[in-house]
Amino acid sequence: MSTFSLPNTQPEIPVHLCHDLSKDQLLSFPAFKTWISTLQHSLSTQQNASHTFHSTPYRLRKIEIQSVDFFGGKRLGFVKLQAEVSNDCGEKLPGAVFLRGGSVGMMLILQPDDVPEHTENEKQVILTLQPRIPAGSLSLAELPAGMLDDSGTFSGAAAKEIAEETGLEIPADDLVNLTELALPAASDENDEQLQRAVYPSPGGCDEYIPLFLWQKRVPREQLREWQGKLTGLREHGEKITLMLCPLDQVWKYGGRDGKVLAAYALFCGLRRDGKIK
User: Fold this and answer.
1) Contact of 95 with 83, CB cutoff 8 Å
2) Sign of the C-alpha dihedral computed for residues 34, 40, 41 and 42 taken in this order
3) Whole-model pTM?
4) Which of 67, 118, 161, 251 is least buried, going by the fewest C-beta atoms within 10 A?
5) Could you give the CA distance from residue 209 to residue 263 in angstroms, rounded to a whole number?
6) Rounded to whole angstroms, how far apart are CA atoms 63 and 82?
7) How far apart are the first and last CA of the chain?
8) Kind and range of the H or E run holding 199
């Protein structure tokens, strides 16, 4: 195990590495870079006299990398670390962190094109069903999750399944960023600079998920065909499949998935406030 000092910090903050991780690998890991810059900025806001912790500020004392996982044997995927954050009175903040970085969630809504526009009539939401071993499930219903590729197009396993089953591809120009519309950006240096995204498990994980909306009107016959096909039933050995769910019932069918509940709440709130149609 080796140790180095976090760059550009005074007083120095030691970082203790596990045996299979190098300094360069950690410092170039996007999730670590985002997490450490966000934390350091939040700690710096304690300098403001109105901050709750101004009189006895907390600071980051050290970081211990406990374990890592590599994807495909080469690309750093997950980092488990312990951050010691305390004040001069010896009071500590919980610092167990699982770093995995951000992803995106997509609320994909289809509606027959023969119903009046800007209404909720007959809207259907696409959900995925797939194994989620951390949840102990082999068939968890959730919003499609993945990433935005370099062109801004939704990509990943769920996007591939949607394209294969429906022929639908989801370009960046058609996306509405629900979280960006709902969550205000930092107004000055005294504000924390968190991601404009949902944090599903902030007590232990850095993961943040911007939630996007994509609505499309399709021919009724096409939607009826998909409704008969996208039932959530998987063929033998199939790992991921799709189902269509009525919009007003999605909180029930997808209620175990935080992305579903957050996206539905944002969708309803933003519609009520007139920010989306």
Assistant:
1) yes
2) positive
3) 0.90
4) 118
5) 10
6) 6
7) 55
8) none
